[in-house]
Each structure stands twice: as structure tokens, then as C-alpha cells.
Amino acid sequence: xxxALITGITGQDGAYLAEFLLKxxxxxxxxxxxxxxxxxxxxxxxxxxxxxxxxxxxxxxxSSMLKIIKQYKPGEIYNxxxxxxxxxxxxxxxxxxxxxxxGVLNLLEAVRLSQCDCKIYQASSSEMFGFVQQPxxxxxxxxxxxxxxxxxxxxxxxxxxxxxxxxxFFACSGILFNHESPLRSLHFVTRKVTHAVARIVHGLQSKxxxxxxxxxxxxxxxxxxxxxxxxxxxxxxPDDFVIATGRAVSVRHMCQTxxxxxxxxxxxxxxxxxxxxxxxxxxxxxxxPSKAKKxxxxxxxxxxxxxxxxxxxxxxxxxxxxxxxxxxxxxx
Length: 332
Ligand code: NDP
Ligand code: GDP
Prior knowledge:
The protein is 41% helix and 15% strand. It is α/β, with parallel strands linked by helices. Residues 327-332 have low confidence and may be disordered.
């Protein structure tokens, strides 16, 4: 039986990837950092918590990773752990760089020092393109990160490439564009909006305040993207891949799509709040996933509209279960 170690298992991608690998028959090890409270809600939502072996560890603590890798000798390691919210990266730049950047080097060093013969997936990000140097970004597009998060991811990306070139590591960097799902954290704009839609429908909230509505993103479905991570590690040689849908949509259009799902006009509910604008914005991201299609045989299956509808429906269900129907509110 193959053993895979996932860092960041409690996050959105960690949950979908664990589910995917369990279905493939893997023994899944999930690294859990010690926290005053740890939420397993995503894994519980997918009904897979009991099938995972949790091991204590933190990517900022190389000794914990060395211990796990030596003890379990995983054949594949998926490094998903990060402070992943761009908006928080200006408030916590050092923590972001320690976790999202140095965490990658800690993992690579733990693998090197333990002489573990394993394949490594590094969760790189389209945020590395930041102030985009080409209208459509692919594996050859120069990087220009625009946030401490983007800079930290770029460090992790180049370290991954460097360990591959220096030590012959089977290490792949997936340059993933934004991907969403009902398991997305509420910090991110799609889930903030779909959650607000559900609360508005149930009369629990009347408006939603957002920042820059003109930014656009290449939004895919997280459930599709975890397959690409796995496919990268099944190839004969390690490489880096852009994973995207090839279509960009503005935040404004995303709001319209989400409110349309419940028959409401977004412009009656969305307000702009200047304090939610970022110090430096990534105006647009649009990926070219041709290489992934050609070499991995991967392409996005779920459309942007399907993803947003899935999120709205999941949030409506959650809010309904939590608060029940209220009189005088819009029907879902
Ligand atoms: P999440 O924020 O949902 O998950 C991040 C995970 O990392 C959580 O399980 C979190 O645990 C864990 N974590 C945080 N700090 C540490 C630490 N010090 N040691 C160990 N674990 C830690 O992110 P996603 O699932 O959305 O993304 C997965 C990865 O992919 C991340 O690296 C992200 O930056 C990257 N990525 C994501 C994209 C997206 O659109 N989703 C796009 C491109 C890249 P806890 O919750 O307990 O803090
Ligand atoms: P990101 O691409 O990883 O930063 O994902 P987000 O979902 O956090 O943000 C996507 C885009 O939406 C960015 O350009 C944000 O500036 C923009 N945006 C506008 N309003 C908001 C908001 O209220 N919250 C968040 N998170 N993003 C917003």
C-alpha cells in the first residue's frame, strides 16, 4: 500500500486530496500542527476523518517533519501547508514567510537529511505572477509577486526547483490558479459572497461589503485540481505545471453569478468598502493549462458557474440547518 503524507490536511485542498488518495487505496498520513483548537470540519464534511492517520508536526519545525518522514517513509509528500490568505499576508508578513516560504525549505531539508526516497509536490501559486508580465500566464511567464504571500510562494517554488536540480529530487511544483469549493475558507472572496448570499436569503444579513470588484481571477473547482497534484507525481520525470481553467472572470461577475443562483440582483446587496482594498493588487490572473493537458492529460471538468452554484447551495443548506427558515425572507 502506498503511503502519502499531506501537510495542510485540514485545509480545503488537503481535504479533497485526502479523499482522492483514499479512493486510490493510499494510506494517508495527515500532519497536524499543535493548536489550541484544531478544526477537522472539512474532513468530517467529506466523512473521511476516521480513515486518516494524524501525526503531530508543523512546517516551521523541521525536527517534527524529520521525525515523521523517518518513521513513516512516505512514498509521496504533498506540501499544502501555508498561511494561504493574501489579505492577511500584509498583517503577518513574517509568519507568512516562515510558514509559506521557509516551511518548504524545512520540508526539503527534512527529506534530504532523512534520505527518504519520496516524491514531493509543492503547492505553488498563480500569485507568483502577481503584476502579470503576459496577458495569459504559463510555465515560462516571468514572475512578479505583489504580496508577502506571493514572495514567500516564489521562494518555495525556486527552492523546489533548486532541490530538483541540485540533488535530483523528484519534486514538482504545481502553479495552481485560484480554486474554490464549498470547503473554501470564508476569508476568500467567492466563499465570502456565497455565504453572504445564503445569509441574505435567510434574512440574517442585508449587505455584503467587498473591496476591488474589478479584479479578475481564473477560478476553478478544488475537487478537480487535486487530481492534477497526484498526476504530477505519477510521471516519469518531475516537472512544473500551470493548473488553471483558461478563463478569467471579474469579482463583479462572480457576485452576479452567485446572486443569480437565488434570483437576486447583486447590485442591491454588494457594497464597496475602501478598507478592503489591498496595498498592492493583483488585477488579473489567467492561466494557460496546455502543458498540463498535453503531458498529464488533465483539464478542468467543472465550470465556474457550476462551482459557484455548488457553493451557494452548500451555504444555503448550512445556514438553513443552523438557523432554520425565517418568516418574510426570500425563498432559496
Ligand atoms: P488552506 O488555507 O485551506 O489550508 C492551509 C493548511 O495549512 C491548513 O490545513 C492549515 O492548518 C495548514 N497550516 C497552516 N500553518 C501551518 C503550519 N505552520 N504547519 C503545518 N500546517 C499549517 O489552503 P488551501 O487548501 O486552499 O490551499 C492549499 C495550498 O495550495 C496552500 O499552500 C495554498 O497557499 C496553495 N494554493 C491554493 C490556491 C487556492 O486557490 N486554494 C491557489 C494556489 C495555491 P490550520 O487550518 O490549522 O491553520
Ligand atoms: P486571492 O486571489 O488568493 O487573493 O483570492 P481572494 O479570493 O482573497 O481574492 C480574489 C480577488 O478578490 C482579489 O483581487 C481581491 O482584492 C478581491 N476582493 C474584492 N473584495 C474582496 C473581499 O472582500 N475579500 C477578499 N478576500 N477578496 C476580495
